[in-house]
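Worked example 3 (structure in, sequence out).
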């Protein structure tokens, strides 16, 4: 437990430092006024897209679980996913949404292996889809950033992702004498389940396809939120620039991406001429919108009678 709270404290420090730095770059009064003048028609459109994203991501997780013979009914899977989103977006906690999903899936009757590997491989499929979108949009990105060293970063990430999948698939060859360690046994099981997913072309393409669709939906949601602030940005700009931002945000060094996302937004949308204060405001609205739409997941958590202490004991018994 001490290690998890230390990790949380470090992430909080990173978010706080970045937010403090960015706050010196904007006029807080003007930004607050712009937030109060939102076009709620666009906000409602973004909310509708979030509903589509929720269904898409539920289908992705269930596709992974079906490949592992550890599936739950669609409605129940959606419920657990929504609760996980709530923990990821709305609570400054040392217990992440993925850990909550693992715990709840276990309570729903899945094996410990199925619960853990199902969530982990769903994450892999999501990130793989994200990287695919980033690489596919590379020509459009180059048209915006020009001859910039950043153009090498995302193809390199794609290669790293492929190598990562390959490494996962061979971990089951770890010598049996190391099997006395729980971590090694877990990696062997994960390796076998990785093969079951990614060596079944139909399942793999479907899972990664849902990852690609999810990124397109997130980019569309960001576009509508930008328009709600009367920011002049094209949908194609969001489809090209939001995925790299989200990729950077997946680096687990901050609380729900706060601070890191804003820095990435300033950098990415600066290539299309967006002012620093506007990019920060855009990113803050994106983060706030994610918190608001995640709140019903908290209601599902309360209605289920779950306790966070039980999750903590399950995922960090030491």
């Amino acid at each position: 437990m001490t290690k998890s709270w230390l990790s949380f404290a470090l992430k909080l420090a990173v978010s706080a430092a970045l937010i403090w730095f960015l706050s010196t770059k904007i006029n807080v009064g003007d930004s607050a006024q712009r937030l109060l003048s939102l076009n709620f028609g666009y906000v409602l459109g973004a909310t509708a897209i979030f509903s589509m994203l929720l269904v898409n991501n539920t289908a992705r997780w269930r596709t992974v679980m079906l490949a592992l013979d550890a599936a739950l009914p669609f409605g129940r899977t959606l419920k657990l996913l929504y609760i996980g989103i709530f923990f990821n977006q709305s609570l400054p906690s040392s217990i992440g949404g993925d850990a909550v999903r693992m715990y709840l899936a276990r309570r729903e009757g899945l094996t410990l292996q199925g619960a853990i590997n199902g969530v982990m491989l769903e994450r892999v499929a999501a990130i793989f889809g994200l990287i695919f979108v980033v690489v596919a949009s590379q020509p459009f990105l180059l048209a915006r950033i020009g001859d910039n060293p950043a153009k090498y970063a995302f193809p390199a990430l794609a290669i790293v992702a492929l190598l990562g999948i390959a490494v996962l698939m061979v971990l089951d060859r770890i010598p049996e004498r190391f099997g006395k360690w729980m971590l090694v046994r877990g990696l062997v099981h994960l390796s076998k389940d990785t093969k079951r997913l990614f060596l079944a072309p139909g399942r793999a393409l479907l899972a990664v396809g849902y990852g690609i669709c999810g990124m397109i939906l997130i980019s569309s949601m960001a576009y509508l939120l930008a328009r709600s602030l009367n920011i002049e940005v094209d949908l194609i700009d969001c489809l090209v620039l939001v995925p790299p931002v989200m990729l950077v945000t997946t680096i687990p060094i901050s609380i729900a991406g706060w601070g890191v996302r804003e820095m990435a937004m300033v950098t990415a949308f600066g290539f299309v001429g967006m002012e620093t204060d506007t990019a920060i405001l855009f990113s803050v609205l994106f983060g706030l919108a994610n918190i608001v739409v995640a709140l019903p997941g908290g209601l599902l958590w309360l209605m289920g009678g779950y306790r966070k202490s039980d999750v903590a004991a399950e995922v960090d018994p030491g």
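Notes: The longest helix spans residues 40-67. The chain has a mean pLDDT of 86.
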